[in-house]
Design a protein that fits this description.
alpha/beta, globular, 16% strand, Aspartate Aminotransferase, domain 1, binds pyridoxal-5'-phosphate
């Protein structure tokens, strides 16, 4: 490809591209990115910016990590894609084995798809079909207030109703909504919100009509970066299990170390029946979704009768290049000091994030590598602050994308303490 002048392609972007989550009248022009390296993006205008949100929560180790880039190039030249019904290949098989080994026990089968939303659709469809095949149909889904599970119809239905879902309101199946278990100030005694959450769950579970409970373990992402306690989730899972309800841990965001353990579900003694993964799974290089299921669930679909098949698949299911990228990302975990890097980020947040928040009278919360600060009277996603702060931060060399007026950092593991401190200095200036 002969290089094209960046002024030229930026014009073509403006002429031809409809960007995601973007009001194209307010933001007609996008920022051109030339290349990425580690925690940094290099813009077409020569600036270098710190990617404090891992490019929408996907970039795991860092941009253009050489090991992952190399694995992708090698795999592309070897086997780039093959039909995944009746056929298979080495990268998907090795990846499935490794993920079954490192995910919570009991998740023994891997179903591939393309992204987080499809991984969620698969988990929901498996749950509903499971109960049909069981001969005891259950069709209701339990989901949390403020949940976010993706943008396809089933995932939207499970997600909280919001400006994102409003145009489709009449077409979404209804779910049983559980109040968010907001922890109390001291985080050790049970709060009123936590008690209400558990009581509502118990009441709904005992109706016997709930097929599955889907939740983002310990961190609700797009719904406002809300943190909840493992003790409460564990009690919730116990209630669900006691009533035979399938539990679906949506770890699309929380997987691969973001919350300080490999998976957020690692903190609970009781394990989910289904788990969804995406975002960081390929190190943030290529799209891939994955739904892990228990053997018991898988076996309910086994039959001589072809009607009892899970009829779901996507053209690129189990793509070899994505699988090779995911394997390379797991190798980075094995061979580089990833947990030390994570610890550096955790410590930097603890020290500097809480200080800046206190200085400006904001609430502060943190789970692992994710730090969040917000005003006590914060408003919703469409707060004008998000665009204003995002633009100002960018002028100072930091990529932030506040959720309304909730500011958060979710940096790639290549970030140094100086990078994090620099981001907090910019946030400090924004809040002045
Ligand atoms: C981002 C996200 C999804 C959707 O993933 P996409 O790849 O954007 O479709 C689902 N669940 C959670 C928890 C997410 O954060």
């Amino acid at each position: 490809m002969t290089p094209i002048n960046s002024q030229e392609w930026l014009k073509w972007d403006e002429a031809y591209i409809w960007h995601p989550y973007t009001q194209m009248q307010l933001v007609p022009r996008s920022i051109g990115v030339e290349r990425g390296e580690g925690a940094y993006l290099y813009l077409q205008d020569g600036r270098r910016i710190f990617d404090a949100i891992s490019s929408w929560w996907v970039t795991l180790h860092g941009h253009a990590h050489p090991r992952i880039a190399h694995a992708i190039a090698q795999q592309a030249a070897h086997l780039e894609q093959v039909i995944f019904a009746g056929f298979t290949h080495e990268p998907a098989s090795v990846l499935a084995k490794k993920l079954v080994e490192i995910t919570p026990r009991g998740l023994d089968k891997v179903f591939f798809s393309d992204n987080g939303s499809t991984a969620v659709e698969v988990a929901l469809k498996m749950s509903i079909q499971f109960w049909k095949l069981n001969g005891t149909p259950r069709t209701k889904i339990l989901a949390l207030e403020h949940a976010y599970h993706g943008d396809t119809f089933g995932a939207m239905a499970a997600s909280a109703r919001s400006p994102f879902t409003a145009p489709f309101e009449d077409m979404l199946f209804s779910v049983v909504r559980l109040p968010f278990p907001e922890p109390g100030e001291d985080r050790t005694t049970i709060s009123d919100a936590e008690r209400l959450f558990l009581a509502t769950l118990e009441r709904e579970a005992s109706t016997g009509s709930i097929a599955a409970f889907i939740y983002e373990p310990l961190l609700l992402g797009a719904g406002g970066m809300l943190v909840w306690r493992p003790e409460i989730l564990e009690q919730a899972m116990n209630i669900a299990k006691a009533h035979g309800i399938l539990t679906i841990a949506d770890e699309v965001l929380t997987g691969f170390g973001r919350t300080g353990t490999m998976f957020a579900s690692d903190r609970m003694a009781i394990k989910p029946d289904l788990m969804t993964l995406s975002k960081g799974i390929t190190g943030g290089f290529l799209p891939m979704g994955m739904t892990l299921a228990s053997s018991a669930l898988f076996e309910r679909f086994l039959s001589e009768d072809r009607h009892r098949t899970f009829f779901h698949g996507h053209s690129y299911t189990g793509n070899p290049i994505s699988a090779a990228a995911a394997l390379a990302s797991l190798e980075v975990f094995e061979e580089e000091p990833v947990w030390e890097r994570i610890e550096t980020i955790v410590k930097a947040h603890e020290t500097f994030g809480s200080t800046i928040a206190r200085k400006h009278g904001l609430t502060y919360r943190q789970i692992g590598t994710v730090a969040v600060m917000e005003r006590r009277d914060h408003t919703g996603y469409l707060s004008t602050k998000s665009l204003e702060w995002g633009a100002k931060a960018l002028e100072r060399g930091i990529l932030l994308r506040p959720l309304g007026d909730t500011i958060y950092l979710l940096p790639p593991y290549a970030s140094t303490e100086e990078d994090i401190v620099g981001a907090y200095e910019v946030i400090d200036a924004l809040l002045e």
